Amino acid sequence: AFGANVNFEPRLPAHDQRPQEAALCAEVAAEVARRGAMLRTDMKPSMGAEDFCLKCRSDPVPTCVWIGNGAGEGGCMLHNPNYDLTTIIASVGVAYWVRLVARLLAA
Predict the structure, then answer these.
(1) Of 40, 42, 43, 16, which Cα lies nearest the Cα of 29?
(2) Are residues 53 and 59 in contact, defined by beta-carbon separation less than 8 angstroms?
(3) How many Cβ atoms sit within 10 Å of the Cβ of residue 100?
(4) Is 29's pLDDT higher than 90?
(5) Greatest CA separation found in the chain?
(6) Where are the alpha helices (DSSP H) in the chain?
(7) Helices H, strands E: what count in the chain?
């Protein structure tokens, strides 16, 4: 359309999460989630973390985890100038990573 040409060259491999590691991450997330928090493991494929696919190829736990702080007042997606990372969700994120690393080191 409008005289435009597109040359598509796939350069990044797909990021495939392994079920065992994904289950561990979901389990740890459930342990640290605040009461009433929504934990979803049914997310559809997304290109939202395509830049991590190469890093994850060499990672011992190649799993992407999304954490959000809800829509809130005027809520918006990450990478938006109005995004507000609350201290509440930051502390949950820290607790998640500490517990996940502890579980992995204990294994």
Answers:
(1) 40
(2) no
(3) 20
(4) yes
(5) 59
(6) 19-32, 53-57, 87-106
(7) 3, 0
Which residue type is seen at 75?
G
Q: Write down the residue that tokens 């954490």 correspond to.
A: 67
Query: The whole model's pTM is what?
Result: 0.71
Encoded tokens for 13: 């491999």
Encoded tokens for 98: 């500490």
pLDDT band with cut points at 50, 70 and 90 for residue 71: low
Cα 99 to chain centroid distance, Å, stands at: 16
Q: Which residues lie below 8 Å from residue 106, measured CB to CB, with a gap of 6+?
A: none
Token match 């080191």: residue?
Answer: 105
